[in-house]
Amino acid sequence: MSRFLTRRLGALAATLLVSSFLIYAAMYAAPGTPESFLVQGRTVSAEVLASIRAQYGLDDPFLLRYWHWLIGVLGGDLGESLTTRQDVASLLMSRIPTTLWLTTYAAVLIVVFGVAAGVAAGLRGGVFDTGVLLASSVGFAIPTFFAAVLLMSVFSVTLGWFPVFGSGSGLPDRMLHLTLPAVALAVPAAAVVARITRTAVVEERDAEHVSVALARGVPWRVVARRHIVRNAMLPVTTIVGVNIAALVAGAAVVEHAFTLDGVGALLINAVQQKDFAVVQAVALVLVAVFGLVNLVVDVLYAVIDPRVQLGGESA
Length: 315
Known about the structure:
Its main location: membrane. The chain is mostly helical.
């Protein structure tokens, strides 16, 4: 297991290094420059522009600028926001709790409802199976932003059950405020997870080894737990991991709709204001989160099926 983890951590480090270069390069390849934003369209002298470029190191060669930025990131220095003049790391730390609560809440909903509905549909079949297929098709077709607007209209404006704005304070109040955003964020992903889980369970249920186990008199509950559900969890783990990793990026739409002070809302504002340092930091965080979730999925693969671990170490 130690060699397996070492390989995966090395791959994650290489991914983050390449991603950091692409993120830094993409920001400077995009239209607009930091100095043009800083002057806010005002006409300034060449000396002022030169001083701005010197202050932010824009006259240095590109690779040197990237190297200084990378060293700063490794040391915890993500730069300074061009709009607020605040430390970017401090801005992120103030926004991360809201996004973390939201995505964790949504991830729990995806696992509980998506996996549970898919397993039940695959094992039971019949009307319940048809209902899950229909509900998953509808859920997958609903865009996240439309789901957010619909939930707000029904459960906040019409029924008044949930608040619309803010993330709340304290556990009960926070859960109340984040319920609608989490549901809006989880609906499409839960639909995909339910559909794929159901398909994986049906394939395992109709497999030959299941028929043999039942013919030998093994109780259905044991067969369902050990032979069907467990074997079906490999593809399910993959799709759950991918969808949970995508929640951080998808949270931007939901945070904007519900005016939450999360990382996603910070990213949208930074892009609109061409705040290079903030965009680069948030993008790097998104890549890191996606890589860490994939690492967790790899470890779960090795736990569910030790052959995955052995195959990785023999390569």
